[in-house]
Amino acid sequence: WDINSVDPCTWSMVACSPDGFVVSL
Q1: Number of domains, the chain
Q2: SS3 for 15?
Q3: Tens digits of residue pLDDT in 1-25
Q4: Which contiguous run of DSSP H or E holds residue 16?
Q5: Which pTM value belongs to this model?
């Protein structure tokens, strides 16, 4: 994904750690 275009943490079915890393898809 392009981290500059959209925050993957806002997508459905995506989980992020408190540090902002995507931990699951």
Answers
A1: 1
A2: strand
A3: 555 556 766 777 777 777 767 777 6
A4: strand 15-16
A5: 0.29
